[in-house]
Amino acid sequence: MELKDVKELLKAFDESNSSYLSVEIDNTKIKLKKYSEQKVVVENTTQVCEQSSLAQIDSNVDNSPELQLDGEQVLAPLVGVFYAAPSPEEDAYVQVGDTVKKGQVLCLIEAMKMMSEITAPKDGVIKKIFVKNQDVVEFEQPLFLIGD
Fold first, then answer.
1. Helices (H) and strands (E) in the chain — how many of each?
2. Range 74-102 burial, b when 16+ CB lie within 10 A, else e
3. Residue 3 near residue 59, CB atoms below 8 Å
C-alpha cells in the first residue's frame, strides 16, 4: 500500500461518521480509531510516524507463529459490545486452552439491546482471545482463534 493510499484512506475516515475501521490489504492490517485528541500514530514494522488528525492507524502485521499455524479465526458477525460471560457474576464462556465443540457458545455480542450468541464454527481448542470483556467490536473483527 502506497503512502498516498494511506492518506486518502485517512482523509475519507476523518470525514466519515465512523469511529472505527479495520482493513486488510496485501497481508497488512490497518485499524483506524477516532480519538478526542488530535493525533495519528502510524505504525509499521519498519517505521513510526506521527501526524495531526483524529485517527490512529495500526498497520502492524501479526507474524507470531501461533496465528500462522493451524487455526480458524472466529469473526464478529455484527457491531456491538462483546461479553465474555452470560452475566457479570458468572464465569466466562471460554478461556484460552479450553476445548470447545462446534455450536458451543463462545460469547455474546449486544447490539441495540439485543444479545446474539456467537458459537464455535468447529471443534477445537481456544488458542487466543483477541478482545476483552465489554470491548466494542466491529463487523468481522477477530474474536477468537480456534485450533486443533
1. 2, 13
2. bbbeeebebbbeeeeeeeebbeeeeebee
3. no
Measure the CA–CA gap between 104 and 126, rounded to whole angstroms. Answer: 12
Provide the CA 113 distance to its chain's centre, in angstroms.
21
C-alpha cell at 39: 493525533
Q: Residue 110 — φ and ψ, nearest 5°? A: -95, 125
35-49 pLDDT tens trace: 544 444 444 443 333
Distance CA 96, CA 62 (A): 18
Entry pTM: 0.55
- What's the pLDDT tens digit per position in 62-114? 444 444 547 899 999 999 999 999 998 999 999 999 999 999 999 999 988 89
Q: How far apart are CA 117 and CA 105, in angstroms?
A: 6
Grid coordinates standing for 105? Answer: 457458545
Determine the Cα–Cα distance for residues 58 and 134; give it in Å rounded to an integer: 21
